[in-house]
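Thread: N-(iminomethyl)-L-glutamic acid complex, take 2
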Amino acid sequence: MRDLGVIEGGCLASREGKIVFAGNRADFERDVSLADDAVILEGTDRVVVPGFVDAHTHLAFAGSRHEEFALRLDGHSYEEIAARGGGILSTVRATRAAIPEELGESLLRRLDRMLLHGTTTCEAKSGYGLTLESELALLRLVDEAATAHPMTVLGTLLGAHALPPEYRGDRDGYVTLVAERMIPAAAAAGFASFCDVFCERSAFTVAEARRIFAAGAAHGLAPRVHADQLSDFGAANLAAEIGATAADHLDHVGDDGIRALAAAGVPAGLLPGATFCLKSTRHAPARRLVEAGASIYLATDLNPGTSRTESMQEILALGVLLMDLSVEEAIAAATVNAAASLGLADRIGGLVPGMNADFLVLDIPHYLHLVYHFGVNHVATVVKDGRVVVEQGGLSGEENGGEDVL
Ligand code: NIG
Ligand code: FE
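Output below.
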């Protein structure tokens, strides 16, 4: 992860959506004949990187929790607010009321913002409907947004995000609904690639998660786990045991869980936006995970409660400055490693001939500026599947009509 394979003064060429050349200028001039209608992007004094892959988002939600955010700033904890009916359940109320009218539009606006900040592939979870119909409706909206939008979007059923109020006192009934009805229906509709469980003392137990993931496996939905976010709950060990495609959060994972993830080759998802936004000083042990040999990736965890950001650039900065990753590790974690956790490593996350031409031209003189010069958007151009989909101009003027074009 420390060797990004940087090519100084390099050239990149794509044809029909795939990269056909990545290397130095002399080889480019010798080997590549440009088509008459070739689009040339100048990258002098700029940096080209793969498009970011955001492999953990809760994209499909309605409403806003800015008032809870203010309560947290006043000293109330996330779990305390949730226990009072706020938290995830307040977004469930807003989301149930909003399906499908405003939701599709808000999904597309979030995808736009992600793309403008350089994310070209993402995962998107349901989890704010918590009925069979509403969870499927959310995944359908994700599927429609994916079709309408240039980004690659993979859906995840997160029916087991919280126990909905109508099942209070009947946990088993709800777990049965997720395992026996939501999973088969989501798989049959073709709207989801993965299923996820929030495995935590305030959400679902390890035994409940095991049952849901067994149903997922039977229907071809690969497991991803919200693991050990608020306590050392044994969820990382479960992720290792079932060979999950992701064990995410891990703020409280213990040595045993770290060893298990590394041994099982389960990707560890680091979500520093959530710890940052919760003002927690307990970050996932990124260094210990890397040293143990685990594959780590970075993601936004975009959601209305704990990480309200679409920007992977921000997450890179937090991964480096709060979790002690190197900038090189953070870039690998936000691209190739994240793509691997989504099962896309053969085509997404690298600048290699044969892979998708998904890349960014960044208006920075060195890749270290991605973190050193933090808090602003460095994306000048986004290319997705070989097409320019974002071109950010200057402040105003003739050249770009004064607008960002998408
Ligand atoms: O990943 N941990 C569970 N789910 C989200 C938070 C969801 C919410 O607060 O709405 C997370 O942090
Ligand atoms: Fe999450």
